Amino acid sequence: MSTKATQPQGGQPQREQWSSRLGFLMAAIGSAIGLGNIWRFPAVTYEHGGGAFLIPYLAALLTAGIPLLILEYTIGRKYRSSPPGALRQLARPAETIGWWQVAICFVVATYYAAILAWAVRYTGFSFDQAWGDDPEGFLNNEFLKLNETPGEISTFVPGVAWPLLLIWVLTLAVLLLGIRRGIERANIVTIPLLVGFFLILVVRALTLDGAAEGLDALFTPDWGALTEGSVWVAAYGQIFFSLSVGFGIMITYASYLHRKSDLSGSAMVAAFANSSFEILAGVAVFATLGFMAQAAGVGVADVTSSGVGLAFVAFPQIISEMPMGAFFGVLFFVSLVIAGFTSLISIVQVIIAAVQDRTGLGRTAAVLSVGGAVTVVSVLLFANDSGLYLLDVADHFINQYGIALAGLVVLITVSWGLRQLPALQRNADATSSIGLGVWWRICLGVITPVVLAWMMVDSLVTELDENYAGYSTSFLLWAGWGVAGGALLVGVLLTLLSRRRPATRWDAAAASDAANPTERNG
Question: Which region is the signal sequence (predicted)?
């Protein structure tokens, strides 16, 4: 098997490649395992049937998660480009979808780094429980200096700015080193470290008083929940958002694969590794919440939370009450930083790859230009007294009407519009250990698009019925709908600008494939 990428015509530089399948898998797993695994999955499971939720969750993994991963791996490896270039080679108009995904990644990167900055600070706060007796008041008033009016910016917050800059320096340093020496090596070190830390957290959590009650609350099945459509929608939503599909990350990562790499087997390993970590996180979180509930003399339902509230309010309170709290706190927040850091690297790499592929810039120039832009926007928007409000609304709308919607559009375009699923299946089967049957085409052509469309309609109905989180309509219009719609508009504008440029690697790659169709098909 060749270890070199085929040199495209036109004098373009060779594309970087992963040094091994392990390197790619670690990077893919690192991208998938993020903050949502730790602070979203446990709460979603608890709220949607407990142990019974694992049935629709597994169904969603098999009918949407793994098939989508294989699809993105195949597109990335076959067309050897970032999302705009890969989709452009499928069909010229589809390039817009790729740039839309790049714009989505830019938005997500700006606020995702801010959460990591908070986790960095809270690692330090864990040593002396700086949040005192009121973790929520400390987070909002002393640390974030939250403005009473959402969207009204009046104060710069240095305590958020400097760890945010630190996160960006570390992220860009890894990206400057490239695919093998940077991203691959970083994930090979951090993913085993993350799993090791979380295993320690699980063992410690299971020894706490009340841990059994917490696990009972999480895993006791409510079989009646299986008849509710919202439970199945929640399962598909969790799989979709936790596997890094829908916004170009896996297309980008797979573009650095060897031509004969196993795609279906790699997708299954990455997907099941991600799901295993989610269950591990659920055990750690709910065993700890069980301790909190017992200490407060209330039920587990009264202390259950997710997202920012779980990580930066509930867990600090638990850390203050439990034996060896400082040790537990440091491990927990360092684990948050590691999980988020590997995901942030993958998000920013999508933007860098698109800039490199379209302009021909070297890695250093691309990383510094992209990194400089995203860092400035990140600090300006989220190191101020409205940062939490902006983050909350942007995250909600870019997930629902950016990532999920872009994923739906890609599926409809590839399966219904271009009818490319049979050709992509042949390409994947040519080098994969597990052949794809008709089920793969049914999942991607029927099941997943229907479920994603259902999610869109359900979300829109809720959105129109009442304002998200009680925010004002004007704030939601510019910070929510404006961000989601702006990403799509930027995608269209970047497509128009891209087409005005002279031919580059994308066109050279297409010419190379026309001359060598056998090699292209694996």
Answer: none
In the block, tokens 């629709």 appear at 56
pLDDT, tens digit, for every residue of 278-305?
Answer: 999 999 999 999 999 998 899 898 888 8
| Cβ atoms within 10 Å of 234's Cβ, excluding its own | 22
pLDDT digits (tens, 9 = 90+) for 207-222: 999 999 999 999 999 9
What is the pLDDT confidence band of residue 508, given thresholds at 50, 70 and 90?
Answer: low
Report the amino acid identity of residue 119: A
Neighbouring residues of 231: CB distance < 8 A, sequence distance ≥ 6:
48, 49, 53, 56, 225
Structure-token pair, residue 376: 């400035």
**263, two tokens:** 């795609």
Per-residue burial over 412-444, b if 16 or more Cβ lie within 10 Å, else e, is ebbbeebebbeebbebbbebbeeebeeebbebb
Domain 24-506: assigned CATH number: 1.20.1740.10
Q: For residues 100 and 369, is the Cβ–Cβ distance under 8 A? A: no
- The domain spans of the chain are 24-506
For 42, other C-beta atoms within 10 Å of its C-beta total 26
Cα torsion through 388, 391, 397, 398, rounded to 10: -170
Tell me whether residue 162 is exposed, middle or buried, using C-beta atoms within 10 angstroms of its C-beta: 0 to 12, 13 to 18, 19 or more.
Answer: middle
- By three-state DSSP, how is residue 20 classified? coil
Confidence grade of residue 5 (pLDDT, cut at 50, 70, 90): very low
pLDDT of residue 296: 87
> CB of 5 within 8 A of CB of 17?
yes
Which helix or strand (DSSP H or E) is residue 63 part of? none
Alpha-carbon distances, residue 242 vs 162, 270, 336, 368, 399 (angstroms): 28, 11, 15, 28, 11
Q: In this predicted model, what pLDDT tens digit does every residue of 409-429 receive, in sequence order?
A: 999 999 999 999 999 999 999
Task: Please list, in sequence order, all residues whose beta carbon lies within 8 angstroms of the beta carbon of residue 276, skipping any fewer than 6 positions away.
Answer: none
Indicate the SS3 state at residue 82: coil
Q: Would you state the structure tokens that stand for residue 310, as one six-digit string?
A: 């779980």
Measured over the CA atoms of residue 32, residue 38, residue 42 and residue 43, the dihedral's sign is negative
Dist CA 483 CA 489 (whole Å): 10
Phi and psi at 384, nearest 5°, equal -140, 180
* Residue 10 predicted with pLDDT over 70: no
pLDDT of res. 323: 87
